[in-house]
Amino acid sequence: MAPGPIIVLTGTPGTGKTSTAQLLASSSSSSSLSPPLPLQHINVGELIRDKALHDGWDEEWQSWDVNEDKVLDELERIIDDRPDGEGLILDWHTCDVYPERWPDLVVVLRCDHALLWERLEKRNYPMNKIQENNESEIMQVVLDEAQASYPAEIVVELKSETPEDMERNVERILEWAKVWREQRAREAEEEG
Ligand SMILES: Nc1ncnc2c1ncn2[C@@H]1O[C@H](COP(=O)(O)OP(=O)(O)OP(=O)(O)O)[C@@H](O)[C@H]1O
């Protein structure tokens, strides 16, 4: 069986990547598709912390000083070693570090900036980080980054402000994955 799709799920911190990726992964494994199309959730931020893919802790920004080469090597291992038929969801607040050939779909989650401010405040983010992320969301930095890094036809922007938005987004991505697999199977058949 061919490998499943690589879905880059990105957006400003707090837009809902991890919540969406968790729902997407669990919905994909419980869906009635035959054969199944499981999507494994990779929380890249957690991977960086757990596997020390960084060069230390930045006190001012309260974040890891990410070592991109180590991150890419680790992700490449995960991509190569995944079981046949399994897709991946790469959940991270940045997306331009991946090689262009990796993603089959790039989803950029968007959220009203006032709502984002509240979400980050609830998480006790330091003020400089709340402000930076808020400005970044207003200026659509992550969307611009995605559009500059990947072909327009694979980049989609989805609103993620309510639980209903999240459910709708998960349904849309699952539907996309199903069609993506059907197209791949047709192409493989044509190639003989
Ligand atoms: N669509 C949504 N509707 C309502 N609440 C949401 C939605 N998406 C996320 N949230 C809430 O916003 C907060 C941040 O969500 P989440 O951790 O998924 O964001 P994130 O983009 O992964 O953040 P980070 O990049 O910092 O990991 C959580 O409390 C979550 O429950």
From TrEMBL:
It comes from the Eukaryota. Residues 122-132 are annotated as: LID. GO terms for molecular function: AMP kinase activity; ATP binding; ATP hydrolysis activity. Broad-specificity nucleoside monophosphate (NMP) kinase that catalyzes the reversible transfer of the terminal phosphate group between nucleoside triphosphates and monophosphates. Has also ATPase activity. Involved in the late cytoplasmic maturation steps of the 40S ribosomal particles, specifically 18S rRNA maturation. While NMP activity is not required for ribosome maturation, ATPase activity is. Associates transiently with small ribosomal subunit protein uS11. ATP hydrolysis breaks the interaction with uS11. SUPFAM superfamilies: P-loop containing nucleoside triphosphate hydrolases (SSF52540). InterPro entries: Adenyl_kinase_AK6, P-loop_NTPase. Its main location: cytoplasm. This is Adenylate kinase isoenzyme 6 homolog. It is found in: Cytoplasm; Nucleus. Keywords: ATP-binding, Cytoplasm, Hydrolase, Kinase, Nucleotide-binding, Nucleus, Ribosome biogenesis, rRNA processing, Transferase. ATP binds at residues 14, 16-19, 123. It catalyses: AMP + ATP = 2 ADP; ATP + H2O = ADP + phosphate + H(+). Interacts with small ribosomal subunit protein uS11. Not a structural component of 43S pre-ribosomes, but transiently interacts with them by binding to uS11. GO terms for biological process: ribosomal small subunit biogenesis; rRNA processing. It comes from Calocera cornea HHB12733. Pfam families: AAA_18 (PF13238). One of its GO terms (cellular component) is cytoplasm. Residues 43-66 are annotated as: NMPbind. Its EC number is 2.7.4.3. Belongs to the adenylate kinase family. AK6 subfamily.
